[in-house]
Amino acid sequence: MFGIGGGELFFIILVVLMLFGSDKIPDIARALGKGMAQLKNATNEIKSEIQKGAQDSGLDMNTLTGGVSEEIAKAKEGIVKMVNPMENINLDVQNPIEQVKEDIENITGPVKRQM
């Protein structure tokens, strides 16, 4: 959660408790909850107004955002290919390595450790 560990969270709670006291913390939490609800409602209203305006002007938001998503996916694939060009090359190097190991085993026989 926001890169905060358990000890840091405990320290923050302790400082808040010391600054405001135990009697004011529920009021602060209630005010923060109301503020978050108002912010969520405001963003939902703005979103619905944008969608309503787009529909009134004859634009389909799903096709617009779908095209943007496709372009972002294409750009991401291009970046991945530029960063790691060897990813698309399929070289089967495991087979030759195993073949060499078998050849060495056949020539020398099983190797025993000497203590």
TrEMBL record:
Top-level taxon of origin: Bacteria
Positions of transmembrane segments: 6-22
InterPro entries in alphabetical order: TatA/B/E, TatA/E
Pfam families: TatA_B_E
Compartments (UniProt record): Cell membrane
Keywords recorded for this protein, A-Z: Cell membrane, Membrane, Protein transport, Translocation, Transmembrane, Transmembrane helix, Transport
Principal location class: membrane
Topology with respect to the bilayer: Single-pass membrane protein
Physiological role: Part of the twin-arginine translocation (Tat) system that transports large folded proteins containing a characteristic twin-arginine motif in their signal peptide across membranes. TatA could form the protein-conducting channel of the Tat system.
Subunit structure: Forms a complex with TatC.
Family the UniProt entry places it in: Belongs to the TatA/E family.
Listed name of the protein: Sec-independent protein translocase protein TatA
Taxonomic source organism: Flavobacterium lacisediminis
